[in-house]
Each structure stands twice: as C-alpha cells, then as structure tokens.
Fold this sequence. Notes:
Elements: H1 8-11, H2 14-18, E1 21-25, E2 30-35, H3 49-66, E3 74-84, E4 92-102, E5 106-115, E6 120-131
Antiparallel strand pairs: 1-2, 2-4, 3-6, 4-5, 5-6
Amino acid sequence: xxxxxxxxxxxxxxxxxxxxxxxxxxxxxxxxxxxxxxxxxxxxxxxxxxxxxxxxxxxxxxxxxxxxxxxxxxxxxxxxxxxxxxxxxxxxxxxxxxxxxxxxxxxxxxxxxxxxxxxxxxxxxxxxxxxxxx
Length: 134
C-alpha cells in the first residue's frame, strides 16, 4: 500500500474485529485475507459463511472506493450474492475483487474467495451505490 491508500481499519473498523488483513490494494484489484481460526467456524471446523461473505464484501467495497468518480462522497453495498463452492478448513481465505462495471452512480464488483491451496470456495457479485455529497 502507498501513503495515499487508507489502511483497512481506517476504512472499515469491523475488519479488526474479524481479523481481515490487506494483501494487495490497487484501483485494479483488491486482495484481502482472513485467517482460519476456530472462532470463525461453524460445526466441523469449517469457516462460517458469514465470515467469508464479510471478507468478500470488504474487498469489493474497498475496490469500489478506489474507483469512485470525481466528487463522490463514498460507496455503500446495495446488493450482494454469494455462491459457496467449497469450504475453508484451515489456512486462510483469500478474497480477490475486480471491477465489472464502473459508472457514475453504480459500481459492480466480482470477488473470488479461495482457500490456501488456491481452490475456489466462493464467488460474490455485488453492486456498490456511489454516494454523492448532500
């Protein structure tokens, strides 16, 4: 990250509580990691889907914030759809977000979440509403 990019805790304070870490941050791609831990799991030691969804939403929101049009005040998620394709049982969940559409009022983002072995465990599509100053 450079000096102009805010850290994840400044952008999304919830990230500290969840344990989300920034890996790579640019206007083209945001990668965030969530380490596996028993506190983030459901029965059987599988990372909770809500934790994975929060990771994907955080990556997508950060990417959208880096792609706001001039004069925008921020962004907020309007909808998000996650399809779970596997499980995270150890290691990390790694979310990689990329822009699908960048408009004046809406930014669409696609996020892949993979486990430490590189297996796709979830895919999230979300829309971020561009907020304008009042």
